[in-house]
Amino acid sequence: MLKLKTILVVLGAFLTVATACTPETLATRIPVATVDVATTVIAGVTQLPATWTPLPDLNPEVTPALTMPPPPSSTPLPTATAVPATATPQPIATDTAVPTDTPLPPTNTPLPATATNTPNPASPTPLPPPTNTPPPVYSGNLLPNGSFEEGHYNMSGIAELQIPNGWLFEWDEGPTGFGENHVYFRPETRVLPSASLPPAEHPLFIYNGQYTVKVFKGYGPISFRLMTDVYLEPGTYTLEVNIFPDLYVDYVNNQKVWAGDPYSGEVRFIVTGASTDWFLPQFGMRNTFTHTFTVQQAGAVRVGFGMRGRYGILNNGWFMDDWSLRRVEG
Prior knowledge:
Layout: H1 2-20, H2 23-29, E1 40-42, E2 45-47, E3 152-154, E4 162-164, E5 168-171, E6 174-175, E7 183-184, E8 188-193, H3 202-205, E9 211-217, E10 222-232, E11 235-252, E12 255-258, E13 266-271, E14 274-275, E15 287-295, E16 299-309, E17 315-320, E18 324-327
Antiparallel strand pairs: 1-2, 3-4, 5-10, 6-7, 8-9, 9-17, 10-16, 11-12, 11-15, 11-17, 11-18, 13-14, 13-16
């Protein structure tokens, strides 16, 4: 009787515990690893964390008559398949003989001759060595006062016409032929020492010594010639002049605005009363020009250089220095 009573007490305690401990309560009492519940997207599919279903708490010491029936949703585990007593032998691969290397044919067969390695049966005729023409040899400067360092005079007593000693000066007055009512005016000339120029302008206008010649006119067309007479023996001569066409139409921010029309300034050589055609210099820079001519008979020859500015621009100015006339000796 006492034994049966003990069994009933045990059974009642079991039912009380089974009723009070739901799966959720048991799950909270069992320590588990903390897992991040955030979903993870894999290949566009949202993966949720797996859920956990607790198994029933069965007591193996309770008799079979008093055990709780399995839950109706339980699925019996599949029975194990018996393994055959003897294992089926697997075929063993036999070693396959490795083929032997086949010797390649020799690769030192000479290549056929090409255009680059075939000797030319007919050797080209060697070119003659180049002949070096020696540069001409010149005499000294034959111009009187060619660098304008030897003083000046006032032509016809006019203070505005300073002419270098040993030189002649001519100018044109009257219609220019380049427009109605356009006339040439007499220019002004100066033989300027370096002290009369800013130091920054010395290399622009002075090319030898300390003096330069300036011929100019503001707002007026000019045409003039600077010449000298030289006694020359028969032979070939080269006349060289250096000029700076100071032709500008405006002055902006302390900068000269050079004339845009290339025909604002023209130049030409003069020899024995004849002259070359007019040609165009570059404005705002030093220009060096040479002219070679031949004298057939000894005598005085007038040589020089002509310059003109056909328009009445802000400044028709011309600087000149370091002129020379040299005989070609060889």
